[in-house]
Amino acid sequence: MHGFGKREMNNPWEEIKLDDYEKHMSLDSVKQLQTINKMMKEQFDAYQVNKAMIFGIAGGNGLEHVSKEKYQIVYGIDINKEYLEAVSGRYTDLSGVLQCLQVDLIKDTSKLPNAQLLIANLLIEYIGYQAFVVAVHRVDPDYVSCVIQINTDEKNWVSDSPYIHVFDRLDEVHSQMEQDELVSVMEGAGYQKILEETESLPNGKALLRIDFKKGKERTYGIN
């Protein structure tokens, strides 16, 4: 709700053009689009589930790995309406399976349906641990698969590129993720870590995938 006499700032992600975002993420010096794509194939294939949800779907990177034989429904969640329109236009072959929903994950979690698998890649950084846990409880998945960015240079967490100024306002909402804190928060929410994988990126960065399962489970690591 808007305050009296005060204009609420919109979320920076509502202003970033999808084309700028994807061009930046796919640069050879960044390589996040390509790396996330590979990781998403593994996320979709990993568990015996038929309902999945993707937080922060952006332009739908990785959706080509959704098997219509396996999945009855895949929910694509994003705050940016233009992103969701682009996803629906790009993946018409997933008609009947893919459902795109515009949701602000900080304010509107009541809009979220249930799913057995929740995928959240490069998303928790922008909503924070607590909002993420609230959203997880709402979706109530059996499995949660997250990818977070590990930075050796915390000041310059966005890789330099011709598109870097597109992301200037993200400092307002970005928080550096800590692996141990994420695991601790998820354990508090009733989810145990079952998988850990790291993919190296250019510029001394890395993407860390951590998967969780509801309830108690032995943990193991893969590097």
Task: Walk me through this protein's architecture.
This protein has 223 residues and is of the alpha/beta class. It has 6 helices and 7 strands. The protein has helices at 18-26, 32-45, 81-90, 124-127, 129-139, 179-188, and strands spanning 51-55, 73-78, 98-102, 117-121, 143-150, 191-200, 206-214. The chain has a 7-stranded mixed sheet, with helices on both faces. Strand 6 (191-200) and strand 7 form a beta hairpin. The longest helix has 14 residues, at 32-45. The radius of gyration is 17 Å and the shape is globular. It starts with 17 loop residues before the first helix and ends in a 9-residue tail after the last strand. Mean pLDDT is 81; it is low at 1-8, 157-163 and 217-223.
